[in-house]
Specification:
alpha+beta; ten-stranded antiparallel β-sheet; Anthranilate synthase; 356 residues; seven-stranded antiparallel β-sheet
Length: 356
């Protein structure tokens, strides 16, 4: 609550720049207190775009069952931690239009070749906020419906992402890679059939392999060891199955979580392979800029621990509108109609959270 310090950076190595500012600030804090200080951050999808790191004046931190309140500066002037009930969510009206997304998928397919294997194409929907409300209400709904995701809210960006970009806990590095998805079934039998079909899908397995390879390649220079599963597993969420793989390693002595963010982002799961051609294609064919959608969002503490997600299943608040994005990985053989259906599925958490 409240803001003590805010730093911004842009361009290549933007998170390394934020890291230097963070480390300099930590030197002004007693060593025995540094691990209790946290900062929150996010960055635009464009890897050279704006990134920010915010140190709250007062932070309520929960680790397991332990809860602590950390205040930086004069406690007498810090905002008081109060508890108030959550009111009604804002009322949002979404447009009912025929999307041209299928045409953008076809345009992406036309660009693929032997050296350009995958690109993630996203679409956006813009909802009109017709009645103001408590912005905590949709977050509360997401927390209830999607308990196994990263719930986040920072400067108007909020959501429930199922995908960990990277986590560092006492120099142990973990990442969860998601690529390939299918709708949940209506009953136990069809649900299991959907998961089985996803696991057997050559198209989804290929898409997933691109994503895993990109993560391992990015982590390798920063880790003393890396372990990743050979075969992905089916991750069950409230509305979708994902192919998922967990990757783990041990952070090298000269690297930080910020170095990992700069190296990892954007992953093949949200951009494509190779990255430069994927980013160029995204810039050409997507109608509405992604801003912080599919960018890094997370936290870091003074001991070097941190947890960063990819900002998916999210929305970005404006004054009178809210913009949500969803995308699908396009590879040779992708079907525009199926990819459109996948984005509709991925919009569901945000639409449901803002339902009347």
């Amino acid at each position: 609550m409240g803001e003590h310090t805010r730093w911004t950076a842009s361009g290549p190595g933007r998170f390394a720049e934020l890291s230097a500012l963070w480390q300099a600030a930590l030197k002004t804090i007693a060593p025995n207190l540094r691990e209790h200080v946290v900062a929150l951050g996010s960055g635009q999808f464009d890897p050279t775009g704006l990134a920010q790191l915010v140190v709250p004046r007062t932070a309520i931190i929960r680790r397991g069952r332990a809860v602590s309140i950390v205040t930086i500066g004069d406690a007498a002037t810090a905002p008081e931690a109060t508890r108030r009930s959550v009111g009604a969510a804002p009322v949002v009206v979404w447009p009912n239009i025929d999307s041209v997304y299928r045409d953008r998928v076809r345009a992406a397919l036309a660009r693929l070749d032997s050296s350009f294997g995958k690109v993630v194409v996203a679409r956006a929907i813009t909802g009109e906020i017709t009645t103001a409300g408590d912005e905590r209400a949709p977050l509360q709904r997401l927390t209830s419906e999607y308990p196994d995701t990263h719930i986040f809210a920072l400067d108007g960006l909020w959501g429930a992402s199922p995908e960990t970009l990277v986590s560092v806990d006492h120099r142990r590095v973990t990442a969860r890679v998601l690529a390939g998805s299918a709708a949940r079934g209506a009953d136990a039998a069809t649900d299991m059939a959907a998961a089985t079909a996803l696991a057997a899908s050559a198209k989804d397995r290929e898409e997933h392999e691109y994503a895993v390879t990109s993560v391992i390649t990015a982590l390798a220079p920063h880790c003393r060891s890396i372990v990743g599963a050979v075969t992905p597993f089916a991750l069950r969420l409230a509305n979708v199955w994902h192919l998922a793989s967990d990757v783990s390693g041990v952070l090298g002595s000269r690297s930080t979580v910020f170095d990992l963010i700069d190296s990892l982002h954007p992953t093949a799961a949200v951009a494509g392979v190779p990255t430069d051609r994927a980013l160029a294609t995204i810039a050409e064919i997507e109608a509405i800029p992604r801003d912080r959608y599919a960018g890094p969002v997370g936290w870091v503490d003074g001991a070097g621990n941190g947890e960063w997600a990819i900002a998916l299943r999210c929305a970005q608040w404006g004054t009178n509108e809210i913009v949500a994005h969803a995308g699908a990985g396009i590879i040779d053989g992708s079907d525009p109609e199926s990819e459109f259906a996948e984005t509709e599925l991925k919009f569901r958490p945000i639409r449901d959270a803002l339902a009347g």
